[in-house]
């Protein structure tokens, strides 16, 4: 028996193929999404579907589409696609969408990211729990497909997606830049030539040096997760070797983008968030900018200094997107290199963030390291994971140890100290882990706080 609670979690569907996610499961989930759309009275008559470069994608999409069509919904299949290209299709066509991807997960995984029309997120509270319930019932009873009543069309959205992004950030007048791009054999190899190269639009003043652009869901070179330091080693070396101005690394479904400077040193996603926020605030003065609670406190400081309104949220794209909708925010950024734009239906797009970085760099003469330094004010630990048997007990111990300090529990436990240092300790939703982040005015203070907390967590 298939237990969908193991693969349908807070934000999406994700599991190993074929034991957890197979064509029967995809078909059931397709039927379930169609019924949720009907229950919610969305009036949807069609769903746009897409897949990344994983070998299992086309078969899963075909089964899922069959489920939708058996519920009298038309299917628009946009084929090979990055996740943000699927969001573009959902936004511009005004249709709900389903993207088949497991993002940065290893080759044996696949998954589904759903959205409502206009790229609005489908999370646990907003329909995903109901999708799981319906699909589980179908699988328990044995999925039977009625007559296929819905239509089916195929459509290439890549040129329109590239044109849309080029219309949001004009790179045509920047100084020439040499850029190494590591697509990690993921969908960046599909979208970068279209948006930043000359595959479908006129050439920009960018000399793109491609790395691992061949679409290959077995990830023969490295995992497509640029937040893991070992996965950007090749990019760092190539940037230095080619004397490039910067390097960009995309994850598997190319919705996240990670940046390294000319010396091959990583630029923190918090600095990118602050940089992009200042540019968006020029376009939308006084706008609201969302940041999750483990981005650097430099982000809300810089947003405020530039006339914007910073809003702090929990970690996770469903929380960011919900807060963006509630506050009509112009931009949002996360430590995980997800960047969200009001000009992009409130959805996340690593490509648009990368274009802002290229524009900011190319509009002036300083190297990226000098430009980024304006947005990096504090020392940080990065995320440190500890395996624990009782998450809550350890959180309580840390809470007690720092009882005299300012605390909040928006997401796990955040402790703020008089010198501006802070720690955040939050439980993983999917594993027996506690995740620690520390920021302070100096590296020494970071080390001290890190060691104090880990002594309790791992003691």
Automatic annotation (TrEMBL):
<dbReference type="InterPro" id="IPR005841">
    <property type="entry name" value="Alpha-D-phosphohexomutase_SF"/>
</dbReference>
<feature type="domain" description="Alpha-D-phosphohexomutase alpha/beta/alpha">
    <location>
        <begin position="271"/>
        <end position="378"/>
    </location>
</feature>
<keyword id="KW-0479">Metal-binding</keyword>
<dbReference type="InterPro" id="IPR005846">
    <property type="entry name" value="A-D-PHexomutase_a/b/a-III"/>
</dbReference>
<keyword id="KW-0597">Phosphoprotein</keyword>
<dbReference type="Pfam" id="PF00408">
    <property type="entry name" value="PGM_PMM_IV"/>
</dbReference>
<feature type="domain" description="Alpha-D-phosphohexomutase C-terminal">
    <location>
        <begin position="383"/>
        <end position="454"/>
    </location>
</feature>
<keyword id="KW-0413">Isomerase</keyword>
<dbReference type="InterPro" id="IPR016055">
    <property type="entry name" value="A-D-PHexomutase_a/b/a-I/II/III"/>
</dbReference>
<dbReference type="InterPro" id="IPR005844">
    <property type="entry name" value="A-D-PHexomutase_a/b/a-I"/>
</dbReference>
<dbReference type="Pfam" id="PF02880">
    <property type="entry name" value="PGM_PMM_III"/>
</dbReference>
<protein>
    <submittedName>
        <fullName>Phosphomannomutase/phosphoglucomutase</fullName>
    </submittedName>
</protein>
<dbReference type="Pfam" id="PF02879">
    <property type="entry name" value="PGM_PMM_II"/>
</dbReference>
<feature type="domain" description="Alpha-D-phosphohexomutase alpha/beta/alpha">
    <location>
        <begin position="160"/>
        <end position="264"/>
    </location>
</feature>
<feature type="domain" description="Alpha-D-phosphohexomutase alpha/beta/alpha">
    <location>
        <begin position="8"/>
        <end position="134"/>
    </location>
</feature>
<dbReference type="Pfam" id="PF02878">
    <property type="entry name" value="PGM_PMM_I"/>
</dbReference>
<dbReference type="InterPro" id="IPR005845">
    <property type="entry name" value="A-D-PHexomutase_a/b/a-II"/>
</dbReference>
<keyword id="KW-0460">Magnesium</keyword>
<comment type="similarity">
    <text>Belongs to the phosphohexose mutase family.</text>
</comment>
<dbReference type="InterPro" id="IPR005843">
    <property type="entry name" value="A-D-PHexomutase_C"/>
</dbReference>
<dbReference type="InterPro" id="IPR036900">
    <property type="entry name" value="A-D-PHexomutase_C_sf"/>
</dbReference>
């Amino acid at each position: 028996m298939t237990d969908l609670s193991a693969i349908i979690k807070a934000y999406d569907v994700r599991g190993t193929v074929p034991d957890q996610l197979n064509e029967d499961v995809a078909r059931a989930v397709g039927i379930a999404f169609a019924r949720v759309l009907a229950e919610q009275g969305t009036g949807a008559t069609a769903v746009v579907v897409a897949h990344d470069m994983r070998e299992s994608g086309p078969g899963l999409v075909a089964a899922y589409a069959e489920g939708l069509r058996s519920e009298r919904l038309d299917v628009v299949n946009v084929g090979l696609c990055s996740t943000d290209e699927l969001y573009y299709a959902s936004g511009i066509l005004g249709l709900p969408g389903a993207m088949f991807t497991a993002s940065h997960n290893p080759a044996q995984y696949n998954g589904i990211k759903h959205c409502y029309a206009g790229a609005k997120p489908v999370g646990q509270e907003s329909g995903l729990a109901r999708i799981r319930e319906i699909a589980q019932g179908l699988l328990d009873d044995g999925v039977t497909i009625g007559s296929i009543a819905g239509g089916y069309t195929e459509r290439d959205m890549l040129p329109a997606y590239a044109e849309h992004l080029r219309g949001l950030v004009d790179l045509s007048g920047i100084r020439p830049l040499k850029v190494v791009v590591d697509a990690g054999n993921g969908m960046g190899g599909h979208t970068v030539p279209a948006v930043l190269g000359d595959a479908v639009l006129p050439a920009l003043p960018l000399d793109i040096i491609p790395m691992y652009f061949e679409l290959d869901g077995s990830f023969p070179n490295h995992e497509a997760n640029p937040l893991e330091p070992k996965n950007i080693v090749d990019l760092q070396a190539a940037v230095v070797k080619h004397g490039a101005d910067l390097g960009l690394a995309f994850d598997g479904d190319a919705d996240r983008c990670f940046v390294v400077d000319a010396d091959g040193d990583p630029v923190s996603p918090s600095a990118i968030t602050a940089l992009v926020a200042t540019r968006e605030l020029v376009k939308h003065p006084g706008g609201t900018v969302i940041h999750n609670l483990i981005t650097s406190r430099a982000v809300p400081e810089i947003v405020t200094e530039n006339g914007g309104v910073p809003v702090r949220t929990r970690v996770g794209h469903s929380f960011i997107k919900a807060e963006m909708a509630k506050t009509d925010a112009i931009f949002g950024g996360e430590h995980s290199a997800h960047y969200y734009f009001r000009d992009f239906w409130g959805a996340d797009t690593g490509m648009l963030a990368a274009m802002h970085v290229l524009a900011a760099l190319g509009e002036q003469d300083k190297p990226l390291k000098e430009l980024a330094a304006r947005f990096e004010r504090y020392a940080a630990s990065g995320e440190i994971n500890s395996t624990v048997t009782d998450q809550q007990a350890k959180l309580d111990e840390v809470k007690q140890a720092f009882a005299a300090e300012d605390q909040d529990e928006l997401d796990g436990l955040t402790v703020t100290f008089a010198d501006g240092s802070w720690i955040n300790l939050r439980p993983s939703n999917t594993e027996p882990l506690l995740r620690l982040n520390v920021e302070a005015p100096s590296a020494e203070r970071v080390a001290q706080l890190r060691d104090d907390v880990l002594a309790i967590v791992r003691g």
